[in-house]
């Protein structure tokens, strides 16, 4: 089938299923067994009238399509937040003296909170920072952890700065590893014919 993400909801073709945005309780995306697969599963929990929820599971969605899923979920969240804010506004304004007093108190609290943020920023500026030597050491450490072949930094027997490519004109001595076309500077030795 085909899964279509729309502002109004979610539509699945063959068999035709439409889930309005207002009825979507949760969206879960993932793969149960292994994270290294190319496909993921999408689980939609639909809030039905009453306390019952129904689940729709769509399997084998290509990871390349996750951007559309994330965009749909983001739009869904933004629409719900906007809906909640608009639902809260009439209650806050209320037209009564209590509503006006509540709005005034909220404004006063926001002003006090913004003053605290300015103090926080000043405090962060005064905080001691790493010295230049410490930053260089941490940069070197992170460089050593990364390996040129994309591995997790396990010891391959070679350091990045010690690797050179063989030109074919040199006599080399290798340590028997699988790294063809590489040698270490420390293994360069000149042979003398005697």
TrEMBL record:
Query: What SMART domains does this protein map onto?
Result: Rtt106
Q: Which GO terms describe its molecular function?
A: histone binding; nucleosome binding
Keyword Endoplasmic reticulum listed: no
Q: Does the keyword Signal apply?
A: yes
Task: Tell me the ranges covered by the Histone chaperone RTT106/FACT complex subunit SPT16-like middle domain, including all copies.
Answer: 1-82
Q: Which GO terms describe its cellular component?
A: FACT complex
**Sorted UniProt keywords:** Signal
Q: Where is the composition biased (Acidic residues)?
A: 109-123, 133-178
Q: Where is the signal peptide?
A: 1-24
- Give the span(s) annotated as Disordered: 80-194
Which stretches does UniProt call biased (Basic residues)? 184-194
Basic and acidic residues bias (residue ranges): 80-96
Tell me the superkingdom of the source: Eukaryota
**Record-linked SUPFAM superfamilies:** PH domain-like (SSF50729)
In Swiss-Prot or TrEMBL terms, this protein is called Histone chaperone RTT106/FACT complex subunit SPT16-like middle domain-containing protein
Q: Which organism is it from?
A: Fibrocapsa japonica
